[in-house]
Amino acid sequence: MREMRCARVTRAAGATRTCVRLVLLLLLTTTALLAPVPRLTLSATGMPAAPAPDPAVPTVGRAWPVGVHPPVLRGWEPPATTYGRGHRGVDLAAAAGTPVRAVAEGRVSFAGRVAGKGVVSVELKGTGDPPLRTTYEPVRPAVKKGDAVAAGQVVGTVEAGRSHCTATCVHWGLLSGRTYLDPLTLMPPWLLHRGPSRLLPVLGVPLPS
After folding, report:
1. Separation CA 147–CA 154 (nearest Å)
2. DSSP class per residue in 24-51
3. Radius of gyration for the alpha carbons in the chain, expressed in angstroms and rounded
4. Which terminus of the chain has fewer CB atoms gathered within 10 Å of its CB, N or C?
5. Is the peptide bond before 189 cis (omega within 30 degrees of 0)?
């Protein structure tokens, strides 16, 4: 009799442990199902991320200031304070004499020299009141204050020996009033990631010798 009672107690204890395990497994499964799923970003996947869209900056850019897709020598580095250290714009590689173009339609608000450097500033059409303003330096102006310019129109040429870059470059800035913004946010994705055009062979047409 005593052996039968021990067997019954052992079976009951085993059933209890099994129930406890099932309850714990159910709780863990429920927790995992209810946990939020993490979102992947471009930076999380190791791919280069485009500038974060700024709701205050419409993507009105239709041309690069220089070239087709120039190398960015130094990017936008917003300062921690109004007068703090940082980089209030983007430096684009460009040889002296390279044409500098308006990135979007607008009107020239300044064309002259500041601290010995040639500067051209363009107020962008359709960007609010007051409008956003792009700046280009060091540039030998080919326009004057008040001129209307189209996207891609030449506003000057890169000056030699006036750049703060190690190599010759053009500094491209963007302002809203007195606040500096990242000028790359003006560019739509199709223009920001577009490489230089390449001619492809046409079937049936012989290549020139």
Report:
1. 12
2. HHHHHHHHHHHSPPPPP-TTTTTSPPPP
3. 31
4. C
5. no
Q: Give me the torsion for CA of 102, 104, 106, 109, rounded to 10°.
A: -40
**Structure-token pair, residue 186:** 């003006």
Give CA–CA dist 101/96, Å, rounded: 14
DSSP notation for 137-160: ESEEESS-TT-EE-TT-EEEEEPS
10-residue block means of pLDDT along the chain (209 residues)? Answer: 47 57 59 44 38 76 95 85 76 96 98 95 96 97 98 96 83 94 94 62 48
98: alpha, beta or left? (left if phi > 0; alpha if psi -120 to 50): beta
Closest listed residue to residue 125, CA positions, set 154, 164, 151: 151
User: From CA 76, how far away is CA 180, in angstroms rounded?
Assistant: 10
φ, ψ for residue 173 (rounded to 5)? -120, 165
